[in-house]
Amino acid sequence: MQSATPFVLHLAPGTAAANQDFDNTQDTLRDKPKAKRGPKPKVRPNPQAHLIRMAMASGLSFIDDAVMAGVYIGVSSSNGKLNVRPRHVRKVICLDTISTAEILPRFLNNHCEPITERTAQYLAAAARIAIGSIERHLNKHPLLKRRLQAKWDQHQHYVDDWDFELDFAMHSDGDWHNWDAA
After folding, report:
1. CA dihedral (138, 143, 145, 147) positive or negative
2. Bias regions of kind Polar residues — which residues (predicted)?
3. HSE of 35 in the Cβ direction (CA atoms, 13 Å)?
4. Alpha helices, DSSP H only, in 7-116?
5. Containing H/E element for 97?
6. Radius of gyration of the chain (CA)
7. Whether pLDDT at 139 is above 60
8. What is the pLDDT of residue 167?
9. pLDDT for 18 beyond 80
10. Are 109 and 115 in contact (CB under 8 A)?
11. pLDDT of residue 63
12. Residue 73 has what DSSP assignment?
């Protein structure tokens, strides 16, 4: 006859094995969505958006330099033709959040159709580089940053919200051509 040693399992509190009596841990595991394959969408917050809007309204040239750097570095060109329009990148850098999902519904292509997802990715890449360049410039020049912040605060004091709605400021080349012909 063999002497049997009793088996004792010590469960650490808070683990899934210890909480088998409770169904809520199993439910939370089932309710969790599975991770998608492929790269995760890049979302970049833009805390300097209000300063960028004020700099654009003031016509400061470093904004144009940063936009062109973003276009040439982030997106480049095909056969000497830029893949995105600098004016679209100027609008994107004014958004509070830079992501493809945020950009897609805001722009139209030459045929007055929504832009493709790839174009939105190009715009987001160019905007991320431009914003990085603008942030570096503002960090190098704290007096300029304070002056833009003061302008923003003054503007907020008189006007409740910034009237820079991208959906209203967006026109296709066809619209501009029709207006020029009239």
Report:
1. negative
2. 18-27
3. 5
4. 24-31, 49-58, 61-70, 86-92, 100-103
5. strand 97-98
6. 26
7. yes
8. 37
9. no
10. yes
11. 93
12. I
Is residue 1 over pLDDT 70?
no
Q: What is the DSSP string of 98-166?
A: E-HHHHGGG-B-TTSSBPPHHHHHHHHHHHHHHHHHHHHHHHH-HHHHHHHHHHHHHHHHHSSS----T
What are the φ and ψ backbone dihedral angles of 45, each rounded to 5 degrees? -70, 150
Q: Closest Cα to residue 171, out of 99, 91, 68?
A: 91
Q: Which residue has the tokens 């907020």?
A: 156
Return the number of other C-beta atoms located less than 10 Å from residue 83's C-beta.
Answer: 16
**Per-residue pLDDT tens for 80-102?**
888 889 999 999 999 999 999 89
- Residue 41 burial (CB count, 10 A): 11
Q: Average pLDDT for residues 65-80, to the nearest whole number?
A: 89
Which of 31-40, 42-51, 131-140, 150-159 is predicted least confidently? 31-40
Distances (CA, A) of 107 to 4, 32, 45, 59, 93: 75, 34, 20, 23, 14
Sort 62 into a burial class: Cβ within 10 Å, 0-12 / 13-18 / 19+: middle
Residue 144 CB neighbour total at 10 angstroms: 16
